[in-house]
C-alpha cells in the first residue's frame, strides 16, 4: 500500500476538543488535511486556532454526544452527504470509568461501551462508502494499553478497548481489498485530561474517588503532542499497530512473556510507582492507563 497522503484530503476526527485528539487536529492541519472535527465538548477554540494558522483549509465542527446512538447516526449522515469521499477516519473519542465491576451500574458500563466501542463501530460502518470511494483511504482506532491487558478496576474500559481492537484488526484484513489501511493505536499513559474527566462507578465509596483519580493522573506522563505525531506517522506508513510510550510497550511485553502472571506484576509495579510519586494517594486498586 502506498504511503497515506494527507494534503488536500478530508479527515474525520472524533474527540478533537482536547488531549490526543486536539493535537491530532493540529497535526492533520499542518499536513494539509481538511477537517471534520467531532466532540461532545465545544470545538470553537480548536477550530479557530486551525483556521488562523491554515486559512486555506476547510474546518467543520460537529458538537455531538457519541454515547447516543441517534446522534452518532445523525452525525454520520451529515458527514456522508457533505463528503462522499473521505481520506481518513480517526475514532479517538473515549472515556474512562473507575471502580470495580460491582461498584458500577450496568448503565454506567454501557455508556463506556457506547462511546469507546459502539460509536467507532457505527461511524466506521456508516462512513465506509466514503472511505472506500477512492483507493488510499485510512482508518485509525484509538484503543489503549487496556485493549492489550486487563487489570483490576478496568472492566468497562478494558471491555470497550478489547472490543475496538478486535474490530479494528478484522477491518485491517477486510479493507485491504479496498486499498484502505487500518491502524490500531494502544497508548500508554499520555498526559491529557482523561483522568480528570474520568467517571467513577456510582457505588465506589466517596473517600476512594479522589485518591483513585489522582493515582490514575500520576501515571499519565507522555506528551499528547508526541503521541499525536506518532499516530500520524503510523498512518503515513500504514502501520497495523502502534504502541505509544514505554508504559504501553513494557506491559505488552510482559503480557506476552507471562500471559497469566503479568496482571499481578503490573498491578504491583503500578502501585509502587504511585506510592513513589504521591505517597499519600497510593491505592490498592490503581486505575491506570
Ligand atoms: N491519555 C491516556 O493515557 C490514554 C491511554 C490509552 C488510551 N487513551 C485513549 O485515547 C483517546 C483520547 O483520550 P485523551 O487521553 O486525549 O482524553 P481527553 O479526555 O483529553 O479527550 C477525549 C475527548 O473525547 C471527547 N468525548 C468524551 N466523551 C464523548 C462523547 N460522548 N461524545 C463525543 N466526544 C466525547 C472529550 O470531550 C474529549 O475531547 C481515548 O479513546 C482514550 O481512551 C488515552
Overview of the structural elements:
This is SDR family NAD(P)-dependent oxidoreductase. Keywords: Oxidoreductase. The protein has about 290 residues and is α/β, with parallel strands linked by helices. The protein has helices at about 20-30, 45-55, 70-80, 105-130, 155-175, 205-220, 225-235, 245-255, 260-275, and strands spanning about 10-15, 35-40, 60-65, 90, 95-100, 140, 180-185, 190, 200, 220-225, 240-245. It has one domain (about 10-280): NAD(P)-binding Rossmann-like Domain (Rossmann fold, 3-Layer(aba) Sandwich). About 45% of the residues lie in helices and about 15% in strands. The strands form three sheets. It has a seven-stranded parallel β-sheet with strand order 3-2-1-4-6-7-11, with helices on both faces. Strands 5-9 form a two-stranded parallel ribbon. A two-stranded parallel ribbon has the order 8-10. α1 crosses α7 (about 225-235), α3 packs parallel to α4 and α4 packs parallel to α5 (about 155-175). It is globular. Mean pLDDT is about 95; it is low at about 280-289. The structure holds nicotinamide-adenine-dinucleotide. Nicotinamide-adenine-dinucleotide (NAD) binds next to α1.
